[in-house]
Amino acid sequence: MEPYEQKPEDFPRGKTALAGWATHGIGEAPGQSSIDLAAGAGLKALASIGLKLDDVDALYLALPDDMLSGLSLADYYGIQPRITGNNRTGGSAFLGHALEAALALEAGLCEVALITYGSNTRTNTRRYGPPPGSSPYETPYRPILTSSYALAARRHMHDFGTTREQLAEVAVAARQWANKNPEAYMTGDLTVEDVLSSRPVSTPLTVRDCCLVTDGAAAVVMTGADRARDLREKPAYLLGGAAATTHRYIASMPDLTITAAAMSGPRAFAQAGLEPSDVDVLQLYDAFTINVILFLEDLGFCPKGEGGRFVEGGRIAPGGSLPVNTNGGGLSCVHPGMYGLFTMVEAARQISGEAGERQIDNVDVALAHGNGGVLSSQATLILGSGATL
């Protein structure tokens, strides 16, 4: 039997779109549970385009504290969706949900898909425990999450000469974008030296190399392209998307400097009929500063090993040649356990021209990328304006 090889034309390019989107409870939301936050974001996203809960016939989410969160939110909302998706791959899950929703919409299995997420990670007094499952090779050493990413950072530094200052440039750029975003949880001045001199967490990463711990929620509404045009003047059309997984635990990662984005990115671009040079703005999952460098390389924006040098001199900051994480990212805007859905919301806002002071001129193509596990699961979406159809 010949192995299946997906053809770019198999994907319904531009046939579905993000029609509505919202964020909710960013920062601290005391008294609200994760499902409260997810529900609130979903209601806001529907209201932004004049839809109601009764219109939703496909529901996708993955809460941090509920293995059956799809069932829970359907019950919470009082709806009976045709499709309930609860795929869990960590922070990349929601981009995977968008791919599933696009196929379901195109097949006529549903008409309105709501993808939502919320977490009270910061104000929850009963901290979530470690994720299910444990590795017999790692668990006895009691690693913290940061340690896995620190290994990748150290290996990149060893193999390619990447410097601590280059990693810090990623955090500084994120902060500069956050200073333009009234929703961002952490704002103010941040220099390379501030990053280097902040509290060490796991060598070579300091606390400013690490994402925030916040509450927050995000949601998007997906429909067929024709309906999206009736609901919003400038929808964000899904032109291409793909996901890939290389491992579960960091000890099994084939190469600490190459992520599955090297597979998901090219497939997504092929479906969209575009190349990295066509992208106007990038929203990358920046749980740690090394993530951005790895994803810039693996998605094709610079050669492998050149990511550190690529981000120097403010290239990804406001005024730079390649805007990255224009909301401030997980490093300075919001990171409630899983950040992937926020990349989709910010990409859609940039395409629609609704990003306020941080808006990039004439955005026709935006890339959203999610990371799950410990650099384990990668998912890439290419979104476009009407001009790309």
Could you characterize what this model shows?
Helix content is 32%, strand content 19%. The chain is an alpha/beta fold and 389 residues long. The protein has one domain (10-125, 212-388): Thiolase/Chalcone synthase (Peroxisomal Thiolase, Chain A, domain 1). It has a 9-stranded mixed sheet with strand order 3-2-4-7-1-8-11-10-9, sandwiched between helices. Strands 5-6 form a two-stranded antiparallel sheet. Strand 10 and strand 11 (377-384) form a beta hairpin. Helix 5 crosses helix 9 (289-298). The longest helix has 16 residues, at 145-160. The protein is globular and about 50 Å long. It starts with 15 loop residues before the first strand and ends in a 5-residue tail after the last strand. The mean pLDDT is 94.
Q: Strands of the largest sheet, in order across it?
A: 3-2-4-7-1-8-11-10-9
CATH architecture: 3-Layer(aba) Sandwich
Portion of residues in beta strands equals 15-25%
Overall spatial form: globular
> What is the C-alpha radius of gyration, as a whole number of Å?
19 Å
Order of helices and strands: EHEHEHEHHHEEEHEHEHHHHEE
Distance between the first and last residues' Cα: 36 Å
**Average pLDDT:** 94
* Count of discrete structural domains: 1
CATH topology: Peroxisomal Thiolase, Chain A, domain 1
Helical amount among residues, as a percent range? 25-40%
| Tally of helical segments | 12
CATH uppermost class: Alpha Beta
Uncertain ranges:
none
How many E strands?
11
Helices and strands: which structural class? alpha/beta
Q: Major sheet: size, sense and barrel closure?
A: 9 strands, mixed
User: What is the CATH superfamily classification?
Assistant: Thiolase/Chalcone synthase
